Amino acid sequence: MGDKDQLKSFSDIVKNCVVAPVLVTVDKKPYMNKDAITFSYTKDEIQRMASPFELSLVGKFVYGRPDLSDIRRFFVSLKGGCSFGLMDNRHLSINFCNPEDFHRLWEKQLYYVEKCPMKLSKWYPGFRVEKESPICPVWINFLSIPVEFGGEVMNWASVFGKTVKMDEATIKFLKHCSARVLVEMDVSIKHLEEFWVDVEGKEKYLQKVVFENKPLYCNHCFKLAGLNCHSQLCYVPK
């Protein structure tokens, strides 16, 4: 950590950021399990506790972290209301106030802070710093879509993940030959690239989809861009 950070405490550096998320408790009581104290949670309870972090990203500095004051100035310069905190020496937890700022920053994914590359990924319950998040923003292009189904693309896209938005050309109906939707997609699993559209069991056609910017993910190394992995156990979904 640089000299500038030594002059200020961590709380001094981040205090001008927006208000941090309000933590949620489910007030679980412990019990004894084979002579060990245990706290047990359901998936619904985990989701409730994670709800304040729905708009959270993880920033990973690949080759070293800049001063905290430089990081703060970087986020202020982006004009996106957020708070951040250290997860370890290389990872930041970044929480946003509104979905527009969250998706605007996440969609680009790579930024430079004082010449230090910072990769952004989505936080999710169960995230651990040793494993990169497989949830990525992916543009889905529905090719040769019939005009009458233009209003259905957000519904169709929800099959592949949480829908975010349509692109401007789709919203304004500027391209009649295709439609694009941004989706939060789990790229660690295989996704089909076509599906059937049926009309009363009499007419049907095969709708093709293209994942325009879907990154590779190694399910052995738990990292993006899995083809760069040198392990013989590396597995990348096709």
Question: What would your notes on this structure say?
Answer:
The model is unreliable at 1-11 (pLDDT under 50). The protein folds into two domains: 1-18 and 55-129, RRM (RNA recognition motif) domain (Alpha-Beta Plaits), CATH 3.30.70; 135-218, Alpha-Beta Plaits (2-Layer Sandwich), CATH 3.30.70. β11 (194-199) and β12 form a beta hairpin. The strands form four sheets. It has a five-stranded antiparallel β-sheet with strand order 4-5-3-7-6. It is α+β, with helices and mostly antiparallel strands and 238 residues long. The protein has helices at 3-6, 10-14, 43-50, 68-77, 99-108, 153-157, 168-171; strands at 31-33, 36-38, 56-61, 82-86, 91-96, 110-113, 116-122, 135-143, 162-166, 178-186, 194-199, 203-211, 217-218, 223-224. The protein contains seven helices and 14 strands.
Write the layout of secondary structure elements.
Blueprint: H1 3-6, H2 10-14, E1 31-33, E2 36-38, H3 43-50, E3 56-61, H4 68-77, E4 82-86, E5 91-96, H5 99-108, E6 110-113, E7 116-122, E8 135-143, H6 153-157, E9 162-166, H7 168-171, E10 178-186, E11 194-199, E12 203-211, E13 217-218, E14 223-224
Antiparallel strand pairs: 1-2, 3-5, 3-7, 4-5, 6-7, 8-10, 8-12, 9-10, 11-12, 13-14
Protein name: DUF4283 domain-containing protein
Pfam family, one: DUF4283
Domain DUF4283: 53-130
